Amino acid sequence: MKEKVYVLDTNIILQNVQNLSRISDNSTNNIVIPETVLLELEDKKKLTNELGYYSREFARLLAKMKIKEVDYKTGFKVVKLYNDELTLHIISKDEYESEIEQVHLSESNDKRIIEVAAIAQDYYKGTQTVFLSLDVYARTFALFKGIKAETLHDDKSTVPKFEFVKYIKVDSSLFNSLDGNDITSYDEEYSLDNFCYAFESDDGNSTYGIILNKRINILNEADFKTMQVKPVNLKQKLFMKAILTDMFDLLVIDAKAGSGKTLMSMVAAMRLIDLGHYDKIIYVRNSIESLDKGADIGYLAGNDEKFRVYNMALQDTLEFVAKKQLKKGENKENKESIESKISELTSKYCIETLWPGEARGRTLSEAIVILDEWQNSSEKTTQLILSRLDESCMAIVIGSNRQIDNLYLNKYNNGLTSLLKRTKEKHPEINMFAIELEKAVRGKFAEFTERIFERKR
Asked: Per-block average pLDDT, block size 10, for the chain (457 residues)?
């Protein structure tokens, strides 16, 4: 007898097909797939985004499995499949109580899936049956039917606390000798995630620096002298300093909305191209903004239209830089002048846009690759993009765990968080840098909403 029976919702598979192996625990547990889940997966197979990829992966898994038996019961049947690692039972009802309503299709499907979970609870008597879903509403429907419901254990995992900027006391007489020295000479408790330091003295003086291979690199305002768009607060300066040193391969930034993460990334990347360190900028943004069919990028016709929808943040950034670069005598509000300057910037810095569905088979070279809104990307998509970069590239991963739009992900298991967790380790292949930008710089409305809606209650 199996230890547990898990009835899976569609979102468990669409989040990551590898979830099946973890749930199965080397066939210790039985996995039940309701017929409705198969239909939902079939519907997504043709999508060009991550959901389509996982749907096809599941189809390939099914094709390789062997049929053990088909058990015909009154009102339903069970198709039993197996391979060396998994036991899958697909349950189909002859008739469902829930009517399919196109205007409430998701809710109708949820209820049909729960009907199968109820059958499984009776079919596998003597074994605990658990309905597994990322959707709290679906889990609530299960509870109404008296079925135990859980979400993935990943949802409950702990995100470690980070101290990306560490404040320590140092005598001001030592400030001039900090640059280039070993940080452990000043902080015996230094850890790998202490990427930045604020050195403060008892007489009120302070200086700041970033850490690379345990060496202190002091922040200097002259670092930004030639920049037409300059960082305006300490953490922006530390972030931009880290990019401009060109010593970090992978920079990971968790930032609030309006904190300037995309602008700082783009401006610093342009500076490195001006210096001849790289040839181009590649802007990547995952296409999953909404799971509604009409809003999903995969359904939109033509690359131009796709890029227009999900590259608006890039366009806003380029427009801001363009206005800054227009000469004082020019009419900054002249639309043609701004569009001409944006076109000039795009050409000069060889700015390309890329979405994950186009990345397979490509190798990116001599590029600064900016992965934006990465809280909406899974570990699989993160691996897909980063594995396309050769040794001549720099990757800047930016996002906000406060704004997750992908219903299949949460703050514990998305690509941004997964990379942030890796900052506590030393990696022989790459140098990592990370920081959190928590101060909004868009102006009075951003400050107002931050104060009103994010204050502690």
From this structure: 87 89 90 96 85 90 95 96 92 89 75 95 93 92 94 70 93 93 96 96 94 95 89 95 97 88 95 97 73 36 49 87 76 77 94 84 94 90 93 96 81 90 93 89 72 63
Q: What is the DSSP letter of 100?
A: P
Q: How many CA atoms lie within 13 A of 348 on its CB side?
A: 16
Q: Which of 103, 121, 110, 143 is nearest to 11 (CA)?
A: 110
CA gap 149, 89 in Å, rounded: 18
Provide the 10 A C-beta neighbour count for residue 441: 17
Residue 189, both tokens: 């408790």
Kindly report the number of other CB atoms within 10 A of residue 234's CB atom: 15
CA distance linking residue 333 with residue 314, whole number of Å: 19
Q: Tell how strand 367-372 and strand 394-399 pair up.
A: parallel
- Rounded Cα distance between 172 and 159, Å, is 36
Tokens of 408: 């299949």
Pairing of strands 76-82, 87-93: antiparallel
Q: Which amino acid belongs to residue 274?
A: D
Q: Is 331 helix (H, G, I), strand (E, B) or coil?
A: coil
The model's pTM = 0.79
Rounded CA-CA distance 71/62 in Å is 18
The answer to whether 412 and 231 are in contact (CB under 8 A) is no
Q: What is the set of domains in the chain, with CATH numbers? A: 4-155 (3.40.50.1010), 157-219 (2.30.130), 232-453 (3.40.50.300)
